[in-house]
């Protein structure tokens, strides 16, 4: 100890001098310049590859000659990304590309994804797996819903990557695979598992409570694996963590909708970079063989500031920098905390003024007009607890729609909050075997729309004070139970007033419940894939469920979908257009005039809420009204499927707009719509794309519902009804069949275990129904029965199964 103390200073000086020399050498690039992660001819699997940095990385790796497997949820976006990746290929003739749709938040998703990847890759696992899929819901920790958001962030960011790394390691480390590989040269080359964290996992700032820990957790896992993988010297695997700072991605736009102002202010210190830049720097770091890869100067300092027991990229440099960073932090930490304190002084005690964050949980829970109001005047959080009225309902809708209905996935975050409410409708759901989460998510979306509608109806934001014993400032925690319960209850019971009585329900009711559960389970899934074709159909339904409680009917009404129970409450198309945020409309054309008076079916929901539509054009007003008054297409037209057109669903009005859908009618004559008459010359009694009138979840889903007028029969013309299998046309060549199958595959792949069970139950019930129908026809004569299929016009499984 003595000696050490005496030698301390000279030793330190000597070490510093030596280190400096070595550092100079290192920076001059005297050490190896080997590419530690060659990708040419290798197969790389990237999650979160359809947008943002993951997509950029995929494109750049394709340009370096890699084969790629893109993974994310939304098939439409995956297809677009795949096209860009293909276009970037170094040698298009030899490289191969594909995508797999999966939700990384689903438990056990990764085994399935890896199995599919291996099958596609000629029996070989991918050589490199890069987990990029992630999300972020910044909010203050004391805020309503931050706990639910934290769980959701953990599920996607941490468990999504953790499961993937485990699945691929089990594949790589599997002795059977290794034996067969040992002869190949590439086996000696390390495999790579790459996690994507954030600089926030190196230096945390206010407002990212739900997010940052999920990224810190990745660091913990990566370091653990880096050591653990030494257990398998025959199968070298390198573990990396990429730490981007702000990326100007679609994800950033989403997260900025809920980001507290103070957070925005603090993170300005690290300038944002484009997805391309971040991906390029990340790949450079990986090629240098770095364990922790940072992509900016500050990021690198932050990395060196927290190295602890983690692997170093360059022992000399990292150590030297590690000595310097505390000196920087001496100032940085002070300055940052002072900034936060200054904010608090200026804006008042935050916990008493939740509106500062304007986060979406308030919007969704319907408890706070305050937050939406503040959000509408971004950057001007009010010091008082009663903020000014919002300019209109639109900002609230934008945030709510974007966060809940449009990308309703994130509403899932609320599930936890709702689930934790005592005496919620969760017990009802459990009774039918559904996770309360699924419902809660849908309920949250519904509640969001409630807020919206209520707000619009009032025409101004009325701060709701004293609601359910809530502090008028909104400071008390706990979601306002009445809103959630109403919404959840509507979904569970179609508005019946007594939640939690499912156990005492007679059997048929339970069946009905179950059928609805199925519908919701599917809805929930579909929310994950908002641009996928089938989702469009379900939108139709959502929007009904988004109506305020007063408009909700008992189960039958809900199932019929189109008829709100009280017709006096029914709104005209024009009224709904105004509610949707389109004021001052010039109603000129005959079609617009006619549609304006018709009962509206839905609110118009824009794909890009911030977009301002040109409604000076006559035909655009027609398109808007048609979108509100029309019927959802059974399968969206090609343009809608690709995500074109202003609104989120594909709607047609029978006999109008030359058959085109409302989206294609907008700003165009609809000529490019795949429904346009020029493309569909054969006259059909009903518009070929209109959904059957009874639309409720699965019951509306053609792939689950082979009715007498099944779509598969239609291309053959009415006369050919009942001739499937006899008509000489190969069913497998039928595009509708192919679409159906693809869709069914998509749904089943995306389904979790519970949903899969429910799908099975549904199918089994239909089989039984078919069998019964056939039996009855055989025994009792079949005069009344249609030529094929079970009872027509069924309302759902319960009815179908009944005699
Ligand atoms: N943007 C930023 O400022 C920063 C981002 N990061 C991290 O970098 C990574 C990339 O971010 P960014 O470029 O913004 O990405 P984006 O948010 O723009 O894109 C996210 C990608 O992940 C997919 N994805 C999201 N959730 C899931 C899910 N549950 N299952 C499967 N796929 C999913 C999305 O596709 P789909 O929706 O179709 O599933 C999309 O392809 C993320 O891990 C993020 O946390 C780190 C630092 C800063
Ligand atoms: C010695 C070191 C000096 C430290 C300076 C500190 C500067 C702080 C900048 C914080 C940047 C936060 C980016 C968030 C990125 C992200 O992950 C989110 N966008 C989530 O998606």
UniProtKB/TrEMBL annotation:
EC number: 1.1.1.102
Stored InterPro entries: DUF3716, KDSR-like, NAD(P)-bd_dom_sf, SDR_fam
Biased composition (Basic residues): 521-545
Record carries keyword tRNA processing: no
Pathway: Sphingolipid metabolism; Lipid metabolism; sphingolipid metabolism
Reaction equations catalysed: sphinganine + NADP(+) = 3-oxosphinganine + NADPH + H(+)
Locations listed in the record: Endoplasmic reticulum membrane
Record has Zinc-finger as a keyword: no
SUPFAM superfamilies in the cross-refs: NAD(P)-binding Rossmann-fold domains
Gene Ontology cellular-component terms listed: endoplasmic reticulum membrane
Compositionally biased residues, Low complexity: 387-398, 546-563, 783-794
Region (Disordered): 372-398, 455-482, 513-563, 779-803
A GO biological process held by the record: sphingolipid biosynthetic process
GO molecular function, one term: 3-dehydrosphinganine reductase activity
Transmembrane segments: 12-32, 193-211
Keywords, sorted A to Z: Endoplasmic reticulum, Lipid metabolism, Membrane, NADP, Nucleotide-binding, Oxidoreductase, Sphingolipid metabolism, Transmembrane, Transmembrane helix
Function: Catalyzes the reduction of 3'-oxosphinganine (3-ketodihydrosphingosine/KDS) to sphinganine (dihydrosphingosine/DHS), the second step of de novo sphingolipid biosynthesis.
Cited PANTHER family: 3-KETODIHYDROSPHINGOSINE REDUCTASE
Family: Belongs to the short-chain dehydrogenases/reductases (SDR) family.
Protein name (Swiss-Prot/TrEMBL): 3-dehydrosphinganine reductase
Organism per entry: Canariomyces notabilis
